[in-house]
Amino acid sequence: MGYKHTKVKNYSDKELLARVEALPSFKGFPPQYWILGVQSKEDTYNYFDDKFYLFRGTKFISVVSGTTNAGTTGLMNYTRYNKLGALVVKTNEWYHGLWQFGYHKGKMPALKQIRPIKYYRDWNKNEKTEEIGEMYEGIKGINFHTVLYEKNLSFIRKLIGGWSTGCQVVNHVGKYYRMLNKMRKQKYVTYCLIKEF
């Protein structure tokens, strides 16, 4: 499938905040930095077609492209990780205090999962990321990171491949570090993941 250059549509701050405030798991806006992931309806297989918005309280700070879905490795070769299927994070959910600054695989500055996340196992290998079957909850190493272990700030990756088997991943290295540097001294970082609406 060719890349259609599809992106999540643009929203105003007011639209995004109203959407996440209406979720049942909303407990109030974190006063510090927090991340909002918006998952594309298009779900272009193996491409970075989602967005991450950085907020501080209710103030919009920045937005970057990335993926909230597994790439080819996770979706099609999941038995290397879990025989039940690819890990798919439950959308339309707040994950309060989910992450803390640390290192992804001990090699890359990242936000590391320290609290449970809700997720499904997609087992049908149809090139779509789906919330199907039983819902689980746990700490599964679902980190927020980028697509290169070296700090090449101009590097942008197009294909997900093995860079996400469940992790939330920014594909522009420079933009990732600009975002991460704002949060690295924060004790916890809250994440909210929604579907495009």
Describe the model.
- This protein is mainly beta and 197 residues long.
- The longest helix is centred in the last third of the chain and has 11 residues, at 173-183.
- An 8-stranded mixed β-sheet has the order 6-5-11-1-2-3-10-9. It has a 3-stranded antiparallel β-sheet with strand order 4-7-8.
- The model is unreliable at 1-5 (pLDDT under 50).
- Helix content is 13%, strand content 34%.
Spans where pLDDT lies below 50 across 5 or more residues: 1-5
Strand content: 25-35%
Record field, number of beta strands: 11
**Strand numbers in spatial order across the main sheet:** 6-5-11-1-2-3-10-9
What is the typical, i.e. mean, pLDDT?
95
Given the structure, what is the number of helices? 3
Distance between the termini: 24 Å
Radius of gyration: 15 Å
Biggest sheet layout: 8 strands, mixed
| Helical percentage | 10-25%
Spell out the helices and strands N to C. HEEEHEEEEEEEHE
Structural class: mainly beta
* Apparent shape: globular
Please describe the structure with a list of short key phrases separated by commas or semicolons:
single chain, 197 residues, mainly beta, three-stranded antiparallel β-sheet, globular, disordered N terminus
List the helices and strands and how they pair.
Elements: H1 13-21, E1 33-39, E2 50-56, E3 59-67, H2 72-76, E4 86-89, E5 93-104, E6 108-113, E7 117-122, E8 136-138, E9 144-145, E10 168-170, H3 173-183, E11 189-195
Parallel strand pairs: 1-11, 9-10
Antiparallel strand pairs: 1-2, 2-3, 3-10, 4-7, 5-6, 5-11, 7-8
